[in-house]
Amino acid sequence: MFNTRLCPECESGYSFHEVGCSLDSFEMWEIERAYIDIVSRLTSREEPWQYDELREDIEELKKTSESQVAFESTGGGESLDHPGWTPIHTKCLHKLKNVGRAVELDDGIQPSEPGEYLPGVVPTNDPIRTVYEYGPIDGCKDYAVYSMVSWCELVELDWEQTVAFVVHWLQESGRWEDESWAEGSPKQLVKGKKHVHEKGLGWGEYPSMAKTEMEASSKERRLDAEEQAAILDRELLSAMDV
Fold this sequence. Notes:
Order of helices and strands: HHHEEHHHHHHHHH
Number of helices: 12
Strand content: under 5%
């Protein structure tokens, strides 16, 4: 399932954004509201939406909420104000298209058919991209592996594909050979994180913590996410014998 509480820019699902995120003035409930505004309209009718039409329809919510507020009692309670179309809506719409949950064709924007579009298996946005490109290093190995298993669950890889992905990551980055591990094999290490995948625990602040450690270390990036994204896909992972 797509997580509507992930920031579409920094991908934080925590109560705060990554440092430098241009959307840090928005709270997570505002992000979720923007996603719901868009998705509810895309799925409410069969014909596609033109961008301007979609934006104007959501902008109308501002007028509706203003008229509702006029009838509210002065006793307080949650405000019915709706900001209309905001920068977060623009970012959320772009994210939905980027991960394949919506598609824009010549006749407009519409939700993708179930199973028609699936997100890529290699992370290309920070902080999880940095974790992927460095590979797990001493000092933050557990954070890194936990984050990568969480990533696999987020992009809907099944457990066998997840094992293949993380084992491949450990080996291709060379970190299994270079770093110290208590487990006897990469596969044994990954299997110890099965609960993370099964329960959909998410990664919290782990990728950010690992990214900080990695960039402060003397280690170098071992992988290129864009290059790997062109190679790795679900079919290849399913065919791997690990």
